[in-house]
Amino acid sequence: MARDPLDSIQQALRRVPRQRQRRLSTFRPGPDATLLPGDGETGPAQGPLLDLASNDYLGLSAHPSLKAAAMAAIQREGVGSGGSRLVSGTRPCHVSLEAALAQWLGRERVLLFPSGFQANLAAVLALADRHSEVIADRLIHHSLLVGIQASGARLRRFRHNDLSDLRRLLERGARSEPDRRRLVVSESLFSMEGTSPDLAGIAAACQEFGALLLLDEAHALGLLGPGGRGLAWGLAGVSLVSGTFGKAFGAGGAFLAADDPGGEWLLQSSGAFRYTTALAPPLAAAAEAALEQLQADPGQGEALLRRARRWRDGLEAAGWRRPPGEGPVLPLHVGEDALALDLQGHLEQAGLLGVAIRPPTVPAGTARLRLVLRRDLPHGSLDRLLHALAAWPHAPAP
Predict the structure, then answer these.
(1) What are the φ/ψ torsions at residue 11 (nearest 5 degrees)?
(2) DSSP labels for 20-41?
């Protein structure tokens, strides 16, 4: 009898430690920045959970203007686009959103993608091939790593947000192989660390050594930089910007922003753009409505950053290691996978949702509870969190 071809997969599944197994949970949005368990869900909490986990930073996903724009697009253009952008799938809402984003970001060309993962694949594959060298921050998103692997480029990794280490690798490469194309890859707000790099220093180093620079701004747009335009806004030396609508924009989908010839090269060469159904019109319309909200109130991100500083102060005063960075992502490092899961369950019992992040998402030994601030969190949320954390048996002493 032939061997079951799934045997090796079954064996691999049995080797996954219990503390690293993943389970899906279903939630329904509730009032006042809460999530309600989905029908039939069982777990530590059966009531509303204060949402300290999602990336809906500005609470726009339920904004009336976004919902109205999406519904109007459905009536006008349908639910799906029915084809790729280069065949029959380009709709007026795509063209309008791309033009508005290009103007907002000060770029010549914007192209939309159905997901951030897909946009990052396209970005790397447009700028690197098997003859290239990619120098990437050690903690870049998995989608960027997959893109690097698919490109066949040689990968070098520099220490997280360490400009001197990046410069060392750039200088070494320029000296030993001056004609090889080099691409530097980083993020403006690292989603599991809460940290941001010295982007001006990175861009200057890329210009000095003749390297391209790809910046993933998925978690920064709407929050960081002037008017929430991200850290790349107005900065020379950034070759390509990747952004998504599933975070602060409260919608879905993604985009790449570039100047020519990079933007034109994307259009002509990107299989990830060419061979996929275009972004659904309701999502494109909702994203443009979110952009209008950001432009009408450009201080939304700054207000959230001020709140994030108060939360960092409060957590530090309570004995926790101060979460790094300035943005709304506040990781509480506990180290062990089991401790992170225990803390998640403890907070759920108190009506708070913060998710345990474990390897391989983060390096081994650095498991953490990832807390995320939303602009629409009710007054008193920090006190509620600190009270719950103080009751955890493994909490640090203040």
Answers:
(1) -65, -40
(2) G------EEE-SSSEEEEPTT-
Catalytic residue among 81, 143, 186, 247: 247
Dihedral of CA 359/128/202/308: which sign? negative
pLDDT of residue 226: 95
302 is annotated as an active-site residue? no
What's the chain's length in residues?
398
H-run or E-run covering 112: strand 109-113
> Cα–Cα distances in Å, from 390 out to 130, 283, 357, 367?
52, 41, 20, 19
Percent of the chain with pLDDT over 70: 98
177-190 pLDDT, tens per residue?
999 999 999 999 99
The answer to pTM > 0.85 is yes
Out of 54, 55, 61, 242, pick the active-site residue. Answer: 55
Q: How far apart are the first and last CA of the chain?
A: 64
Run of H or E including 315: helix 300-317
Q: How far apart are CA 240 and CA 222, in angstroms?
A: 18
**Contact present, 184 and 178 (Cβ < 8 Å):** no
**Is the CB of residue 55 less than 8 Å from the CB of residue 219?**
yes
Q: Within 10 A of 94 (CB to CB), how many other CB atoms are there?
A: 23
Of these residues, 61, 143, 191, 242, which one is catalytic? 191
- What is Dmax (Cα atoms) for the chain? 68
Give me the helix-helix angle, 92-105 and 281-296, nearest 10°.
30
Is residue 247 flagged as an active site residue? yes
Instruction: Note whether 304 and 328 are within 8 A (CB).
Output: yes
Residue 335 · residue 367 · CB < 8 Å: yes
Tracing tokens 């008017």 back to the chain, one arrives at: 227
Contacts of 213 (CB under 8 A, 6+ apart): 183, 184, 185, 186, 202, 203, 206, 237, 238, 239, 240
